[in-house]
Amino acid sequence: MTSPINPVLPGFHPDPSVCRVGEDYYLACSSFEYFPGIPLLHSRDLVHWTQIGNVLDRPGQLHLPPGTPASGGVYAPTLRYHGGRFWLIVTNVSGGGNFIVTTTDPAGPWSDPLPLPGVHGIDPDLAWDDDDGTCYCTTAGVNQVRLDPETGRTFGEPYPIWSGSPGAKAPEAPHLYRIRDHWYLLLAEGGTERGHAVSIARGPTPAGPFEPCPRNPIVTHRGIDHPIQNTGHADLVQAPDGSWWMVLLGVRPGGGTPGWHVLGRETFLAPVRWDDDGWPVVGEVPVELPPLRWPLYPAAEPPVRDDFDAAELDPRWISPRGRTVDQVTNKVRPGWLTLRSIFVGRRQQHRSCRVRTKIDAAAGTGGLAVRLDDRHRYSIEASEGAVAVHAVVGTLRTVVEKMAVQPGPVVLRIDIVETTGDWDPLAGPDSLTFGIEFFDGTFCALATLDGRYLSTEVAGGFTGRVIGLYATQGTVHADWFDYEPLS
Ligand code: 6LW
């Protein structure tokens, strides 16, 4: 059974990295080609998370050139608290490589990037040896180099420290911790697809030599009949009561075979205990979490409606490669979001959900889209006097259905319904119905499309679905946007 708690961060929230300061937990995820980049979330219990900002929210911090492909951009951060400051190290694979940003307030602002020309490879980790203050940077592969995190200067050439289990591909996502008498090196391996896994090794120094855990991999769902797959890329954190927890990514494939996941890689939580030999034992994922040992505060559910009345756009709204205030603003028409040549969306976080918007397309063309990437998207689009459903799947582009409507604002709606019922090898993961809603609430469906074409298994890459508003021509205004979870 899927735990009612996991995933703790549903939707496209991959490569979680977590740290704790007092009673507060902070978590960062990869954001790839989207701007603003690196969502930053806060929690008091590791279960309920609120996005308090984005680490890279100024164009000067995150350069995503116009040609940045899907799943380019910003990969796999490590978030740590050290010496009174938050440190985040990350890679921009589309330009700039590895860099560090810091802050005293994780809600921002974060510093400008400090480039790390001597750090090569993705998935950088930062760890400090509190005995002598040395900072170690470890990257996928697995290689390590000593680093001055204040200047970005590295000392010597990177050296290999452990390459994971024999024969396993893609040793990556290293995180190094000093726990009691050992240095532990946590690693993802097997690739981020169905073979994904988490392994661990330990040694007497930050550079090893590392001895692998005899029970590796300590987490994997490869080859088992389970609704959650691809589990890997983990980070560890200790709670104030001394208990240990793991955050990790996983996916929830739907439909028949081979299974399609549409929400991207999501963040899950699992309890960790230590065995008598000092190795971690990770609860089954998903886990029925034991009763939480400290007070819960109310779950941060997404607002059902964004009225676009707030001075600033909610941090959950993201756009591929960047956006300017000329492209997305609520200053032109108060209470409405005005769009020009842009897509702005939020993560689809529920397998079944309904999204609606009231659009005024009298001076342009635009609407509501479900986007896996530029080449995999469905949309319902309004222009003066007409509404059309479009599908883009790879190099195929088609207008699925078109309908004349009265001039004036129109309510566009998409119903996404996950596939349930008897297992059918041919069934897709979900269906998406596009239509318009009349002002008396009646719905007129124009088209229903198979969701498999907006899945990672079809599109490839590392992201998940994002749903939102767009304008292709002229200016389009949206009065409000509703996101209603149905599962
Ligand atoms: C990443 C690697 C991975 O950098 O996928 O799941 C890559 N793990 O560690 C992109 O997120």
From TrEMBL:
UniProt record, GO biological process: carbohydrate metabolic process
Site (Important for catalytic activity, responsible for pKa modulation of the active site Glu and correct orientation of both the proton donor and substrate) residue list: 123
Keyword Hydrolase in record: yes
Pfam families from the UniProt entry: GH43_C2 (PF17851), Glyco_hydro_43 (PF04616)
Keywords for this protein: Glycosidase, Hydrolase
Active site residues of this protein: 15 (proton acceptor), 172 (proton donor)
InterPro entries: ConA-like_dom_sf, GH43_C2, Glyco_hydro_43, Glyco_hydro_beta-prop_sf, Glycosyl_Hydrlase_43
Beta-xylosidase C-terminal Concanavalin A-like domain span: 305-484
GO molecular function, one term: hydrolase activity, hydrolyzing O-glycosyl compounds
Gene3D superfamilies, sorted: 2.60.120.200, Glycosyl hydrolase domain, family 43 (2.115.10.20)
The family this protein is said to belong to: Belongs to the glycosyl hydrolase 43 family.
PANTHER family: BETA-XYLOSIDASE, BETA-XYLOSIDASE-RELATED
UniProt protein name: Glycoside hydrolase 43 family protein
